[in-house]
Write a structure and sequence with these properties.
- It is a single chain.
- With about 230 residues, the chain is α/β, with parallel strands linked by helices.
- The chain has helices spanning about 20-25, 65-70, 85-90, 105-120, 135-145, 160-165, 180-190, 200-210, 220-230, and strands spanning about 1-5, 30-40, 45, 95-100, 125-130, 150-155, 170-175, 195, 215-220.
- Strands 1-2-4-5-6-7-8-9 form an eight-stranded parallel beta barrel, surrounded by five helices.
- Helix 1 runs parallel beside helix 3 (about 85-90).
- It binds SN-glycerol-3-phosphate and magnesium ion.
- SN-glycerol-3-phosphate binds near residues 6, 173, 197, 198 and 217.
- One of its GO terms (biological process) is lipid metabolic process.
């Protein structure tokens, strides 16, 4: 079962920051999940929706300019990274799952990805873009057909994993509190990977493995890997 660091190794470092990314890389994770959205002047920023919970700022990232965002302390004196800084930090070392936090114009996001692929900073295979907004995923697939997409859900839809197959998704990312055998089996029959979030406790990690889940998102990826290596 793969282990993705959720917002980097965010259990021990400020979430969605370069230090959380470095700690995840040190833990030799299979992938790193990060939240992405655009700020008021359209740069792709790596952060959750609101500034209040995680920084000394207030308000929404998408209503704040890059210049103001760069002044904020995201924890331990660190700044909020942009997408380019994250690509430079991770390079081709591990899978990158970018979770689009809410609907926004994706032109700059796509341009940033394509430039980095072209320059060889990242490669196509390591990238996975996910969202709860499935309309965004449709747009992305139309404009960047090679990209792997992950359909996020916090529910068990009536037709199980059918929605993700229709999206031509690579994977489904599902809340661990809703997942069940029927859903996992249905997704697998459709050729989809199943990743569960956010899985930190030993009991939950073992339960996901017993269900046949392909990967988990964990705030404590080092601990999750240790539990999984035991048996
Ligand atoms: O991408 C998995 C998970 O991060 C989705 O929800 O709220 O933890 O970003 P959230
Ligand atoms: Mg996320």
């Amino acid at each position: 079962m793969l282990v993705f660091a959720h917002r980097g190794a965010s259990g021990n470092y400020p979430e969605n920051t370069l230090s959380a990314i470095r700690a995840a890389l040190q833990a030799d994770v299979d992938g790193i999940e990060l939240d992405v959205q655009s700020c008021a002047n359209d740069y792709a920023i790596v952060h959750d929706t609101w500034l209040d919970r995680t920084t000394n700022g207030t308000g929404r990232v998408n209503q704040t300019t890059l210049q103001d965002i760069q002044l904020l302390d995201a924890g331990n004196g660190e700044h909020i990274p942009n997408l380019q800084q994250v690509f430079d930090e991770i390079g081709q070392k591990t899978m990158i799952n970018l979770e689009l936090k809410h609907t926004f114009g994706l032109d700059q996001f796509v341009a940033c990805i394509e430039q980095n692929v072209q320059k060889g900073v990242i490669n196509r295979d390591q990238l996975l873009v996910s969202s709860y907004d499935h309309h965004q995923l449709v747009w992305l697939k139309q404009n960047m057909p090679w990209v792997k997409i992950g359909a996020l859900t916090a529910s068990i839809p009536l037709h199980y994993a059918e929605f993700a197959q229709r999206l031509h998704a690579y994977s489904i990312h599902i809340d661990k509190n809703f997942i069940n055998h029927q859903f996992v089996d249905d997704a697998k029959q459709r050729g989809l990977k199943v990743f569960a979030y956010t899985v930190d406790k030993q009991q939950d990690i073992e339960e996901m493995r017993a269900l046949g889940v392909d990967g988990i998102f964990s705030n404590f990826p080092c601990y999750a890997k240790m539990i999984l290596s035991r048996s």
